[in-house]
Fold each of these.
Amino acid sequence: MAPGVDTTEAAYTVSPAGVLVFRPPAGEITQLTWLNRRGQEQGIVGARAGYQALSLADAHNRIAAEITDLRSGDTDIWTIDATRAITSRLTFTHGPEEMPVGSADGTRVAFSSHRTKSAAKIGVLMATVETGLTRVLTENGGHIYDWSPDRQYILYATNEGVSTETMAALPTTLGATATTVISDPVIHHAQFSPDGRWIAYSSDKSGRLEVYVTSFPAGHGRWQVSSNGGVQSRWVKKANELIYLAPDGKLMVVSVKTGTSFESGVPSLLFDIKVDPSANRRPQYSVSDDGQRFLVNMLTGELGWQSPTTVVLNWTAALKK
């Protein structure tokens, strides 16, 4: 399949002559919306747009977002200064730039990109917010999920085989080599704990996606946090809590204890949110440092762009490579 194409819920057909035609799903317009602890709207950020993923540096009120252009269908990285209500484009290349993660100080943004020598591989890039200067950290990366609190590592997951994904920690220094944390059939939404000693992530090792916690950097131990499925886990930096999204769209909260060991309590309901259920890897919400506000990529019910139709001739030859 063409690199960077989201085939989730895409339409396919193959002619008797072997011509493949496919079209990714149409995108829906969303609105970045602040909710309080009770799920009540407290305001919006920016205009409605084709937001795909978001990352919040709460202490500096900066947001990094992946936005799809409603005319071309291209995705790029943008930054939003929520205090001054200023939205700025950070990347300008043709092709997918996705899954941005801002540094804790709000000065840099790391993201996944197909802007590499091999179009079949996903690179990990880092850009400076003020200048837009971008550098490639690795051309053999994957889907970015988080930046360590000390800004020394970027966490990403990559396919290592047909049935295995690897979670790796990539040092932010040029020329450094990533180290493997864990491998599982599917790994989604990994995030460092506030002290940098633990990682929360989702895995389908049990047969469905559940939220787990493991140690960093060793990847020792596996503690299941969710009880009936869970994705998009988020640590609350100034409270002993872990938030995650249940399969039915409910935000759940769990009390946790970290340090030299990990403990978690029983999940309880916060409130429902209306987000894209097919956003498999892309985070659809962020939580403030004190856990009292939630920035949510809310669905509006309005269709935005229609992805182009692609025709592939002799596609079976690619399967033999």
Amino acid sequence: MTDPSSTSNSSAEYRRTRLGQPLLGAFLVAVLLFLAWECVWRARGLRPSVNDDASLWAMHRNRVDEKASSAFVLAGSSRILTDIVPEVLAEETGGACPVQLGIAGAAPWPVLRHFAEATRFRGCIVVDVAPLHAFSLAEDDVAHRRARECLAEFAEQEDTPFWNVERWLQAQAEARLITWLPELSPHTLAAQYARGGYPRKRLWLMTPGRQRWANPDASEEEWEENRLHWQTYYRESYAELYQRGLLPGPAEREALIAQVNEWVRIIQGRGGRVVFVRLPSSGVLRLLERRWFPKSTHWDMLAQTTEARCVHFEDFPEHPLWNCVDDSHLDGPSSVAFTRAFAGLFAGRGVCAVPRD
């Protein structure tokens, strides 16, 4: 006589087997399709790159211990994202590794003001002073809006317990998988295909730590095309500043520098340190900077009146050897060389040798 319980168990096991096999097959097919998708785009020259949005900036801003003298921050525009390598700076100075808070295309002053007025920061902050973003009078332009967006994101997420972990995990995935690139989203791909094109390789790649590297796979032709594009942009940007009357006169320049120096005094009055750095530029952009923001009336005026330490890339005898691939940013080897030179200049003066906790 057949045991009813035995028959019931066999039927349940059979149903589980029938259900499990299709699910396993579907999973394997999905994995194979995913791997094929990754391989196709990697074969076309694409590389993984972290999406450098306001949430990534806010995550790194949360890493800064405002009350610690060991806090070490890099701030400014895309030049400091590219030209100073945090790990190399820490290695050369023997101190803490700085938190990278540069913002591509942004003015430096909103972040400096934030650390002066909205925090009790008493560490070291190195600020990239790019003339176009630092000295123009357009406080409502994109350069200031980008900085304010990052600060607003930080204020919104500061008290969210698990948000940092979530964004960190997302950054790790973005750094490893082509699929996370925004240009490979279905909507963006469809729009590009409709225009008869496909995503092009990124010339600049971002790491989870917000270090921006020149893509080693990019050809000389791609870099030259990119350089010509940005030279046109630089000319148009400076022409727009002139036409809108946003190039500072002596009175506006003095008022701006006086305000900046007040923020410096607040930070250094708490025991903190501020370092202003003028990072390398070349070619058409350097000519435009010399014409519209002469060193003698802008950088020198800041350096002569501020209590902050100031470093100009022309202070280094080796500066002609550094390669700005688009007139504004150093390539990978030059970034490492500049960082070592920068660290060496100040290591003996105790400015950037921020102690470890």
Amino acid sequence: MTGDAVARLAALDTCAVSDAIDSLGLAGAAPGLAPLWEGGRIAGRVHTVALRPLLAGVVPPTGRHLGTTAIEAAGPGDVIVVANGGRTDSGAWGGLLSAAAHARGVAGVVVDGACRDVDEAVGLGFPVFARGVTPVSARGRTIEEATDIPVLVAGVRVAPGDYVVADCSGVIFVAEDAAARVLDAAESIAAREAAMLADIAAGTPVTQVLDRRYEEMTTRHVEAGADADADADADGRATATVGTEAEGGARAGR
């Protein structure tokens, strides 16, 4: 499923995936994160990096620089996700890290915080998504807590092995165990929007194209589940309730 899921995700934009997770009652949109240069787009599996502030008076630990363990753990097409609590007072990613990740075939990086050396990333064609930019170094200010553990990114719980898609509209995370459902829903939504675009190009009035069906695009999956449960209950068959399914999906989707 892994390679197939990444290929299917790469064929979609974040808006279709966002609509899909809405339709399934899942979390995943990471508000405030945006591309730091135009043209960067990524889709892949996640390796996480958890950072924390270095407290005043504490001697920073010796050893590997933050982010380097994740780079060496990542494979071609993977995406590194750095959780830094939204901090923008100093960088959580920089030019040397971009160069090393690019050389390893990493698809890009998502940082819940600030990045520096953006010009170097642009020169490499290495996509960087973050909350902002800064020239200030992390040295003496931030240390790595762990690599490949569950983290919070813009309020979204993200685990190693989850999926992420990011483009000019923002960043969306998809939980590994929800990927099949989300991709099916997103592909259905994308196909319907493509048909709507064709109708507009053919001259159909926009008031007819963007009618009630468009407003209900992100609720149909929930409604379909409710109808199925009602039919099953009427036949006397044992079924899970929509509420139970929705709760389970929300937990799985963080």
Amino acid sequence: MIALGAARLMCRKVTSLCRWSRLARPARPAMLRAGTLGEPTLDETMGWTLFENGKTVGARGSENGAILVDEEHDLGARITLEQNAEIAPFAITCGIYGWAFHTRFFGTRAAADQDLEGMKNAIGLILLKIPDVDDPALDLKHHEVSQAISTFVDQFP
């Protein structure tokens, strides 16, 4: 847990990509791998549900604010919106399990809400790029995922 905390602090300082480990996922059913032309489909990025069935809403989040929105993607990510965060009125934290953690701060709820859905869609598309453990192009795809995460951080600084 100490190493994870150190990685989180480093990410917070540079608001950048952190890879705790280069994880691949177990093989997915073929219907979840890609759309008809090999590109992810929008339906496949919509796997967001309430984290812990909404039990965390109202609790303190990682930025010490009250959680307003807390959702998890079934392919391995989480996004949280907090109000009255420690250093800003609103914060969005998101993580792609085993790959990245990113925090953004906002002055208004409207500004946070404006980016929340776009961030969720972008994370969903990144999740589809994470290779299966049996993928013959595992190393190449790890690089592609890292690039996609860097682009995400640039798009949502």
